[in-house]
Design brief:
Length: 306
């Protein structure tokens, strides 16, 4: 149904005259007549009777009028829902226990009036595709390619460097260390069954392992975080890596140890990705809130992140 014709019908009904409706709509009287005639043809009924006093609603016109007003109100609600600033900003944070979720929570605390829709997509390819298609407004990802090689119209900025920590059980050889260096981890078995080949996080940990002679194992099925922690807690040989801001909970009797890694500190490079033509005002506010990571010479990142 042509909503311009519906709007014209309502305007004529309110004005009581085709001429007055034409003035209100800033169109010719002929255009008003054609729109009403087209609507009557679509509905298969007469909506007005022309008299010397103007246009009078027929019985069918009287029945249709409240529904026509509902259609116009629905149109306005639909348009308002996607006007810049009215729709919630939709952001991919990879996982709700990871650092990007903390960054978005911090943004929400600083801007409580901004609507947010937080989602979790699988990997950078899926996230970039979603940003490009417009199904999300932004995504936090480690980019294994330079920003200049992103699809046309996609922009990115590095916004957060997250230190990597070693997670061990109480019986591990390094469990008592206050800090460890990457060189000290050479030869130790780091178990990360969630390192899916081809993902950005697998690329990061593969490069970290190659740079410092660390053994990263991905053997066995990935049953999730809790089974991983159970295995680490009972093993004197296996440890794993976690981000400093990764939220990990375990039973008290696991007695797991989170050990900072220094000299240098491996940092996971989180970037924000968005469409350059996205008009949502909250996107600019999010970018301004995040800023860029503070420079620190005593850190390590893969060459593709530098």
């Amino acid at each position: 149904m042509d909503l311009d014709a519906v709007r014209t019908f309502v305007t004529v009904a309110d004005a009581g005259q085709f001429r007055e409706a034409a003035l209100t709509l800033a169109v010719t009287q002929q255009a008003v007549s054609k729109r009403v005639a087209a609507l009557e043809k679509h509905l298969g009924v007469r909506l007005f009777t022309r008299t010397a006093r103007g246009a009078l609603l027929t019985v069918d016109g009287q029945v249709f009028l409240p529904h026509a007003r509902d259609l116009l109100r629905a149109e306005e609600r639909a348009a308002a829902s996607v006007r810049p600033g009215r729709r919630a900003l939709r952001v991919d944070v990879i996982g709700r226990r990871l650092a990007p979720a903390d960054l978005v929570r911090g943004f929400h605390q600083a801007h409580p009036d901004v609507g947010l829709d937080v989602v979790t997509l699988f990997d950078a390819e899926a996230a970039i595709g979603a940003v490009r298609s417009g199904t999300i407004d932004a995504s936090f990802r480690a980019l294994t390619v330079p920003a200049r090689r992103l699809p046309e119209g996609i922009e990115a900025a590095r916004v957060h460097d997250e230190p990597v920590q070693l997670l061990t059980g109480p019986g591990h050889a390094l469990a008592g260390a206050r800090t460890v260096t990457p060189e000290q981890l050479a030869g130790h078995r780091i178990w990360m069954p969630g390192n899916v080949a081809g993902t950005e996080w697998a690329a990061f940990y593969d490069d970290l392992a190659a740079a410092f002679g660390i053994i990263v194992e991905v053997t066995g099925p990935d049953f999730g975080t809790e089974p991983l922690l159970d295995t680490i807690a009972d093993s004197p040989l296996l440890a794993t890596f976690v981000g400093e801001q990764t939220r990990v909970l375990w039973p008290a009797d696991h007695d797991l140890r989170r050990i900072p890694v220094h000299d240098p500190t491996p940092v996971y490079p989180h970037s924000l990705i968005w469409r350059g033509d996205n008009p949502h005002p909250a996107l600019g506010a999010l970018r301004a809130h995040l800023g860029s990571p503070a420079g620190d010479r005593d850190t390590w990142t893969p060459k593709w992140a530098q």
